[in-house]
């Protein structure tokens, strides 16, 4: 009976998130416009400026657009993860988060379900982006589109867990804008999303080290290799470990006795 | 049969150095509507946060139908229905979708959920509007949907955190009378936080909370009899005014 309860709750939480997503078409469009601008404008402009050497998983010279496509998939997951946590801050201010936390299920389970729901939305966006990229002639092997699914899921869960962790520290929405600047931009620009590691190493050793150990880089590499039907075990281990670390800390953050909720105090009186 | 639905014993809570609740104790019984009366800043929201386990109190104890909220939180929360001060419905989803979501969180299957949704919405005269998006409802109707939602999983205790704030008089009266009907017909225990005196019925119980302390608790009629004050308005005024000065 208990298992059935967990199953029904998960279906309910994921279903609600997908329904909300379908009802908010502007959210879907804006989630796609961002990476598409990078692809159509930024990548086209930089095509001539940045030469990409042959490096795994690529077996031939590739266009810059092809290189940054996995990075932009990562960007979709990153923004989606942060947006989900932004919605958690909003939900908590508005009270619907309290509605969720007051139901008779363990808090870790509720947070994980919320995370799965947010990731499902991110993965849908990622596939929509891949569809448009396909029409733009950025095409990977067909099986790559299957292999990429677990990579997108793990990457999305890891970045969502980071967002969840941040949301447990943020009291109000206003503080979130600052965190966006301090988290999203450093994660994105200090990664392999836009340029390969060896290229970063040419300009700065420090940046190279930071980019190498940036969990976002590892998620992007996991996605990049999967799209070309290859398995990157280091990226898998690193992304998985980062996920466990972030989700563990987020669960602590939402713990009613130990977490930040106590320190922050409630709204009202 | 009368049972203790909520027992709060010696509960204290502080945000840093600021004490929000100071040794609060009271009981709420089934078949009884207990009004938690207090001015803004009295500690009502903190008390509700602790009862709903948004966070834990280090001092004191809360029991819901005999289950300790800290140690047996899942059993305790399963018996609790809540209407929060702010609307917590999803405005982009329909009434039914919102209620099905809540039913899923409580592990109620689709068939049983739809049956209960119909029952609760019919009771509140909202069944005809089940397909409408919540955004299209007025404040009073949203509140009715929230009450229906809080009752879907058949709780023993219903917590209402200032549910009538911002509503017009007919909507307020409809909610007040509906909740009192629930108490008498279904033996439900209700804890209703408010600062609106006119929401109190003659046979309600009353807890006056001020600056984190319980200033009075018991049946309204008994409090009036013991103190010699005329009405709940005077009780509220006398108990909360002196220390505010």
Helix and strand sequence of chain B? EEEHEEHEHHHEHEEEHH
Helix content of chain B: 25-40%
Q: Any idea what the radius of gyration of chain A is? A: 19 Å
* Helix-strand string of chain A: HHHHHHHHHHHH
Individual helix count of chain A: 12
Spatial extent as radius of gyration of chain B: 18 Å
Overall body shape of chain B:
globular
Q: Structural class of the helix and strand makeup of chain B?
A: alpha/beta
Portion in beta strands of chain B: 25-35%
Oligomer: heterodimer
The CATH architecture of the largest domain in chain B can be named as 3-Layer(aba) Sandwich
Number of helices, counting only DSSP H or I runs of 4 residues or more of chain B = 8
Instruction: Count the domains of chain B.
Output: 2
CATH-assigned homologous superfamily of the largest domain in chain B: P-loop containing nucleotide triphosphate hydrolases
Task: Measure the end-to-end span of chain B.
Answer: 44 Å
Could you give the count of β-strands of chain A? 0
Choose one word for the global shape of chain A. Answer: globular
Structural class of chain A: mainly alpha
CATH C-level category of the largest domain in chain B: Alpha Beta
Report the average pLDDT across residues of chain B. 88
- Compute the average pLDDT of chain A: 83
